[in-house]
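To close the chapter, one final illustration. This time we ask the reader to focus less on the individual chains and more on the assembly as a whole: which components sit near each other, and how the overall shape emerges from the parts.
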Amino acid sequence: MKTRIRELRARDGLNQTELARLAKISRQTVSLIEREEYIPSLLIAKRMAKIFDETIESIFIFDEEEI
Amino acid sequence: MEKKKKSLLSFAPYFLGGLIVGMVILNFEALSGIGTFVTELSITGLAAAAIFTVLGISGFFQLKSHASKRDGDMDEDESEQYMYRKYADNSLCIQTGLVLSLLVTGVAIIQQTDAWIFTASGITMLAALLFLFLLPTLLHVMYPERDLPSSSDSDFADKLLHASDEGERHVMLEGLYKTFNTINGTLFLGLVILMMYSISTGDNQIFGMIVIAATLITANVRYVTSIRDRG
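The assembled structure is written out below.
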């Protein structure tokens, strides 16, 4: 899974801690997702989509074989 | 290149472990006379315990000061990462200090070494124990906005796990699983070393072997019973 979180954070001028606060998760979790070491739950993905005003699919990009 | 370096580094503990085991096996005879230089060993152990405990305690106050003021030189993410790593380092230092001081205190009682060694290791052990209980109180200073349990709570560990989010639990699970495998391997190795030591020196280690075997079985029973009915 690829993620655009870092790019979207830069676009909206948010640091990891601020994003974590908005998504009601820890900074460690934001960092894990950003480093593509952890696939978030649907709930967190939905919150991220809402924060960045994007669709879940445009933030979290899966390869065909993964789906 | 960085990945290659990391994978080489991941073999370091196994290499070091193998080296120690090899040296122990080759020097059983010398080790059977361990009682003759117990004072030197106790002083070395005590010095190491004191260093780890002092590092842990000074780190505790550094972390407390940083968390209360939030250092202006760092940006918010750096500050959060600093606190997270510092907390983990302090925890490791204090735990190591506690185990080493307990070992030296035990040896001092068994071998009746100098009274000052017993007193110093006892004080180090109490200090490490005190800060081991105080360390979780820092979590409230580090993360004031989070609803974390009080360190005096009897279910502190369970409630802390419950208060963690999914990413934190994922990290904990990975760490605990690796730890479980390491403990299984090292205890098994310890059992084999004690058996070989007993055979080659005639110095009976059966009681120690029973304790290790019981610990190994208890840990595995606890693990299997907690996962088998979840399928």
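Chain B has a mean pLDDT of 87. Chain B touches chain A through 14 residues (CB under 8 Å). With these observations in hand, you are ready for the problems at the end of the chapter.
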